[in-house]
Amino acid sequence: MTRTGIGYDSHRFAAGRRLVLGGVTIPHPEGLAGHSDADVVAHALTDAILGAAGAGSIGGHFPDTDPRWKDADSMVLLRDAYATVRARGYAFVQCDITVITEAPKIGPHAAEMAARIAAVLGADAGDVNVKGKTNEGMGFIGRREGMAAIAVATLERR
Ligand SMILES: [Zn+2]
Question: What is 2-157's CATH number?
Answer without folding.
Answer: 3.30.1330.50
